[in-house]
Design brief:
Radius of gyration: 27 Å
Strand order of the largest sheet: 5-4-24-23-22-6-7
Number of helices: 24
Helix content: 10-25%
Largest sheet: 7 strands, mixed
Length: 934
C-alpha cells in the first residue's frame, strides 16, 4: 500500500468563520464566511438563521466573486472629459466630499427642491430617506416605483400588508398554493424550502404565469395566462365563488368592512361621531361602531334615512361581481384560459378552503372581547410578485387578488397567508407624504407614505407638482414609493421644474434600470444653447464600474457587502418570519483593499459637512462617526432605533435605550436577532388582542390598533368625488375622466394602457422580462461564477410564433415596438403563452462596462428589451403624453409592452450596439480564479 497517494479527505476549510448577511438578492439569508489567511475562502449558509436555516443558493455562494470582481471601483473620481466619455481623474475623499458639499450647500440654503436624491436596491431606505428629509428636498425615493409598488400599496390599503417582505404562506398547513406572476429572483430560498414542504405533504401548487420556468415549472398545474389579464381572471374566480355561495361569511362580517354601511349619496363609509365605521348589529338591528364590544355585524344590514336606503359594502360587492361580464365564458378569450378551467380552479379553491378546513386547539381573544376556543383555518394560500404588478392595471389587479384571499377567509388564518412583523399595519397608521420645503431647513416630514384623500397630495399652492417625479399628484395620487423611472425624463424636460443636482446610489439608470435606455443616455448628456448640461450636476455612488458611472460628474465609490456595515431594520425592509420578529446586520468581515467607503458612512460625513440637523451635535461636530455608529446610536423616537435586539444593557428587545455594544452582540449571535411571537398571538394578528399587546411591547405600534380589512378603499372614492366636482382640491380637466374610471374603491379590471395607444393588429405580441434565479442585481452578469449559468440571453418564442416566422433555435429576429427595435437571437419554448415572447432581464451589458471583455457574450449576444419601452405612452392625438405607468400609483408599466417580430439576417452582434464605454477600471483577466491559501 506504500504506492498509494495520500488523500486529505477533510482539508482545512478556514481559520475562522465570520457570520453575516448575504446581499446577493433580497432574501437577506444568513451566511457563514469562512476566512483563511485573512481572506474570504468559502461562503455557506448559516443553519441557525431564521430566513434560510442553512440553505444557500448559487448567488449566495458566488458572493466571493462579487467581493473580488475586477469591476470594483478603486477611488473617488472626478469627470475630466465630456459626460459619457468615461474620462475621470482619481481624487481624494477630502476633495470628493468638499466638491459634493460645495454643490449641495447652495441648493440647501436657497432652494432644496433643486436636489433630486434617488436610490436603487440599497436596502437602507430608512437611513437614506432620513438624510434626504434633513437636507430638505422633497425629491427622494427608492426603486419601488419601478419594481412592485402596486403590490405593496394595494396590500397595505386593502389589508395592512402584502406579499414578499410583508408576509408569507403558512407553509406548515397550506394544502393549496397559488402563485401569480412570480419569477425566481425574489425570496428564492424561503420559497424553495416552502415548496419542498408542500411537495412532501402532497399539497397542490398552481402557477399562474405566461412563462413556465422555475417555481411554475414544478407546479402541479400551470395556467399560461395572457399578460395583463390576471385581474380579469381573478374577478372571474370571485364571480364563481360568490355565485356558488362559497365564501366565509363569518370572516367577512367580523374582520372586514364588508358589513360597513355605504352612504348612498356620496359613496363614502358611514361613521359615528368618533369617526368609527358603522355597521348594523344583528342583535339590536341598530347602527353601531364596528369595534363595539359584543357587536355582531350584519352583512345584509341597511339603514333608511330621509327616504334613502344605505346598504353595506358587501351588497355593493354582490351587485358588481355577480354581473355576467365576469362569468368565465365572458372572460375566457381575453385571459387565454378556457372557461372550464377557470371554473375548475374556483371549485378547487372553494373545496380546499371549506371542505378541508383545519382547526387548531388554540384559545384567543379578539378585539371585541370575544374569546374563541379554536382557530379555524382555510388552507389556501397565495403568493404574487412583479408579474401582476408591473402593468398599468397592476394596482387594481393586486387589490383583486387580496379580495379573493379575504372572501375565502384565508388571510391570517391557519393554512393561509400570514403577516410578518412589523406587519400588519393599516394604511391609516403609516405616515402621509410630505413636501413642504424651507431653505436651510429639513422637510416638514417623511417623503413617502399613504394618502387618504386629495388633501394629502404633494402639490404646490398653484396646484403644480411639488416633486420632480410627480408622485402624489392627480396623475398618480397613491404613489407610495415615488416614480424613479420618471426622474431623469422630468428633470431633462424641466417639468414640473428644473433641478440642479441629480444624486443617485446603486441605480443603473443609463442601462437596465431605465425605460427608453438610448433616450435616457441622450438626456444625461444633452446640453443647452450655452453648452451647459441640461441636468447640471450628477453625483453617483456604486461599488462597480456600471454603465451609469460614465454619465456622472462625481463618483463616490461604495464598498462591497462584506466590507461595510448594513442594517436590515424593522424601520425598513426586515427579515421577519410570520412567527418571529427578526432583523440583521452586515459588518466588515474584511477590510477594503481600495480607497472606498460604504455609501451610508459617506452620507454621515456629507451630512455633517452640510450641517444637516440629525447629523451634527449641538456644537456642530459630526454626530455619527460612520454608519455603524448611526445604527447603534440613532433613535427614531425614544427607545426605538434601527435595530430591535440587545437594547439597553443588552437584555431589552424592541424598546430600550441605545446599547454601545449592540453590534458586538449581533455579531456574537450570528449577525441577527429574533424574538418569537407568543403562542396564541401568531394568527389573526390584526384582531388578536394578544398580538396587539405584544406588538406594542416590541415597539411595532404605540397602542393596540385593531382594524378592518378594506374591501372597499374609501380614499379612492374621495378622489373620484373630487373628479366629480366635490371639494376644494380639484383635478385638472384632462384627468377627471381617468380618475373616475380607474380609482374605483372596489377592484375593477381595464386593459393595459398601451393597448389603447397603438395598433394591436400591427403589434399583436406581448413581450416580457423576468430575472433568473441565479441573478438578482445587474451585478450578477459580471460575476465569474454566475456568468457560467447565464452568459447571454436569447429571446424565447412560443412554438406557434417560431413556426409562423420560419425560425429555428439560434437564428435572429427583429423585434419592433412603436418606440424602437432590436435584433436578437431566438430560441423556442413550448411552455409559454402562445402570444408572448420573453427574455431574462439585465443579462445584456454595454461594451466597456463591468470590466468585461469587449467580446463578452453579455455584450455581443445579450440584450435589453428596455430599448423597446418608453417612459411615456405613444401620442394618442389628444395633445398629451401620458406616463407609461399605473394611473393610481405611478408604477412603471414594464409588462404592457406590445411588439411585432420578423426573421432577420444574423448581425455580427445584438442590435442596437452602442459605442464602447471608456471605463475607469481595466478589463478583468481572461480567466478569473479564486483560491485562498494552500
Amino acid at each position: 500500500m506504500k504506492d498509494q497517494p495520500y488523500l486529505d479527505t477533510s482539508p482545512k476549510v478556514s481559520d475562522e468563520i465570520r457570520k453575516t448577511t448575504c446581499y446577493m438578492c433580497a432574501c437577506r439569508c444568513g451566511i457563514n464566511v469562512h476566512m483563511k489567511e485573512g481572506k474570504v475562502a468559502y461562503i455557506e449558509g448559516n443553519r441557525d438563521h431564521p430566513v434560510n436555516k442553512g440553505v444557500l443558493c448559487a448567488k449566495g455562494s458566488a458572493g466571493i466573486m462579487q467581493v473580488n470582481a475586477p469591476s470594483r471601483l478603486n477611488a473617488p473620481l472626478k469627470r475630466v472629459g465630456p459626460r459619457g466619455s468615461g474620462q475621470f481623474e482619481e481624487i481624494s475623499w477630502d476633495e470628493a466630499l468638499d466638491m459634493a458639499a460645495g454643490w449641495l450647500k447652495p441648493i440647501r440654503d436657497e432652494n432644496p427642491e433643486k436636489l433630486a436624491f434617488f436610490t436603487g436596491r440599497d436596502q437602507s431606505q430608512s437611513f437614506t430617506s432620513f438624510w434626504a428629509q434633513n437636507f430638505g428636498t422633497p425629491n427622494y425615493a427608492a426603486h419601488g416605483g419601478f419594481c412592485s409598488v402596486n403590490m405593496a400599496a394595494a396590500g397595505i390599503y386593502t389589508m395592512g400588508g402584502a406579499f414578499w417582505e410583508f408576509g408569507q404562506p403558512d407553509w406548515d398547513h397550506t394544502k393549496l398554493f397559488v402563485l401569480f406572476g412570480v419569477a425566481e429572483d425574489h425570496d428564492s430560498n424561503p420559497i424553495k424550502m416552502g415548496l419542498g414542504k408542500l411537495k412532501e405533504r402532497g399539497a397542490k401548487v398552481i402557477g399562474v404565469n405566461p412563462i413556465r420556468t422555475g417555481y411554475n415549472a414544478v407546479a402541479d398545474e400551470w395556467v399560461g395566462i395572457t399578460p395583463g389579464t390576471d385581474g380579469l381572471f381573478i374577478l372571474s374566480l370571485i364571480h364563481e365563488l360568490l355565485k356558488a355561495g362559497r365564501i366565509d361569511l363569518h370572516y367577512l362580517s367580523q374582520y372586514t368592512n364588508a358589513p360597513v354601511l355605504l352612504d348612498a349619496e356620496t359613496g363614502l363609509l358611514m361613521r359615528d361621531e368618533n369617526g368609527k365605521e358603522l355597521v348594523i348589529d344583528r342583535s339590536t338591528k341598530k347602527p353601531a361602531p364596528f369595534d363595539q364590544k359584543g357587536v355582531k355585524p350584519d352583512l345584509n344590514g341597511s339603514r333608511r334615512i330621509g327616504g334613502t336606503t344605505h346598504r353595506t359594502v358587501f351588497h355593493a360587492m354582490i351587485e358588481r361581481y355577480l354581473d355576467p361580464q365576469y362569468a368565465p365564458e365572458a372572460v375566457a378569450k381575453d385571459v387565454g384560459i378556457p372557461a372550464g378551467k377557470i371554473r375548475a380552479i374556483a371549485n378547487e379553491l372553494a373545496r380546499v378552503a371549506f371542505d378541508e378546513a383545519i382547526e387548531l386547539d388554540q384559545e384567543w381573544t379578539d378585539f371585541r372581547g370575544e374569546t374563541h376556543t379554536k382557530m379555524t383555518g382555510r388552507p389556501v394560500s397565495f403568493h404574487a410578485m412583479r408579474g401582476i404588478s408591473a402593468h398599468s392595471n397592476g394596482f387594481q389587479t393586486c387589490r383583486a387578488l387580496h379580495i379573493l384571499q379575504i372572501i375565502l377567509g384565508s388571510v391570517e388564518a391557519p393554512g393561509g397567508f400570514r403577516f410578518k412583523p412589523p406587519y400588519p399595519k393599516p394604511a391609516t397608521i403609516h405616515p402621509k407624504p410630505h413636501c413642504k420645503t424651507t431653505p436651510g431647513a429639513p422637510l416638514d416630514g417623511p417623503h413617502l407614505g399613504f394618502v387618504h384623500g386629495p388633501e394629502d397630495l404633494c402639490l404646490k399652492e398653484d396646484g403644480s407638482p411639488a416633486r420632480i417625479d410627480k408622485a402624489f399628484t392627480w396623475e398618480n395620487p397613491m404613489s407610495a414609493h415615488g416614480l424613479m423611472h420618471m426622474v431623469i425624463s422630468n428633470a431633462h424636460a424641466g417639468d414640473p421644474y428644473k433641478i440642479d443636482t441629480l444624486f443617485m446610489y446603486m441605480a443603473n439608470m443609463s442601462w437596465n434600470s431605465s425605460m427608453n435606455t438610448r433616450g435616457v443616455i441622450d438626456m444625461l448628456t444633452d446640453q443647452d444653447e450655452n453648452g451647459e448640461y441640461v441636468i447640471p450636476r450628477i453625483i453617483y455612488s456604486d461599488a462597480y464600474s456600471s454603465e451609469m458611472v460614465a454619465y456622472a460628474d462625481l463618483i463616490l465609490p461604495d464598498a462591497t457587502y462584506l466590507e461595510r456595515h448594513d442594517c436590515i431594520s424593522l424601520l425598513d425592509r426586515p427579515i421577519c418570519e410570520a412567527d418571529g420578529l427578526a432583523d440583521a446586520i452586515r459588518w466588515p468581515v474584511i477590510e477594503p483593499d481600495r480607497d472606498v467607503r460604504g455609501f451610508q458612512s459617506v452620507l454621515c460625513e456629507l451630512g455633517a459637512k452640510l450641517d444637516l440637523p440629525g447629523f451634527v451635535n449641538e456644537d456642530g461636530t459630526q454626530k455619527y462617526a460612520d454608519y455603524g455608529d448611526y445604527i447603534v446610536s440613532h433613535e427614531r423616537k425614544p427607545g426605538i432605533g434601527p435595530l430591535a435586539g440587545f437594547r439597553g444593557d443588552g437584555s431589552d428587545s424592541g424598546r430600550g435605550a441605545p446599547n454601545p455594544k449592540q453590534l458586538e452582540r449581533y455579531i456574537e449571535n450570528g449577525g441577527f436577532f429574533v424574538e418569537h411571537v407568543p403562542e396564541g398571538a401568531n394568527y389573526y394578528k390584526p384582531w388578536n388582542s394578544a398580538y396587539q399587546d405584544w406588538a406594542v411591547k416590541m415597539g411595532i405600534i404605540d397602542s393596540p390598533q385593531p382594524y378592518l380589512f378594506q374591501l372597499y378603499v374609501e380614499p379612492m372614492r374621495k378622489f373620484q368625488r373630487a373628479a366629480e366636482g366635490h371639494g376644494d382640491r380639484q383635478p385638472p380637466e384632462h384627468l377627471r375622466d381617468r380618475i373616475k374610471e380607474t380609482l374605483d374603491p372596489l377592484p375593477i379590471w381595464y386593459a393595459p394602457a398601451e393597448d389603447s395607444h397603438i395598433d394591436l393588429t400591427e403589434y399583436p405580441i406581448h413581450a416580457l422580462t423576468q430575472r433568473p434565479m441565479a441573478m438578482y442585481h445587474s451585478w450578477g452578469t459580471q460575476n465569474a461564477w454566475l456568468r457560467q449559468i447565464h452568459g447571454m440571453n436569447p429571446l424565447y418564442l412560443p412554438s406557434k410564433l417560431m413556426q409562423e416566422n420560419n425560425l429555428i433555435d439560434g437564428e435572429w429576429a427583429k423585434v419592433s415596438s412603436v418606440h424602437g427595435n432590436i435584433t436578437v437571437p431566438v430560441m423556442e419554448m413550448a411552455a409559454l403563452n402562445e402570444n408572448t415572447v420573453w427574455t431574462w432581464n439585465a443579462i445584456g451589458k454595454r461594451k466597456g462596462a463591468w470590466a468585461l471583455d469587449e467580446q463578452a457574450p453579455e455584450a455581443t449576444k445579450g440584450f435589453l428589451l428596455n430599448h423597446l419601452i418608453h417612459e411615456l405612452l405613444p401620442p394618442k392625438g389628444d395633445g398629451l403624453r401620458w406616463a407609461n405607468s399605473d394611473p393610481i400609483t405611478g408604477q412603471a408599466a414594464w409588462f404592457d409592452l406590445r411588439v411585432k417580430i420578423e426573421k432577420a439576417p444574423p448581425p455580427s452582434e445584438s442590435q442596437p450596439a452602442l459605442p464602447t464605454l471608456n471605463s475607469p477600471v481595466q478589463p478583468g483577466p481572461k480567466n478569473l480564479e479564486w483560491k485562498v491559501g494552500e
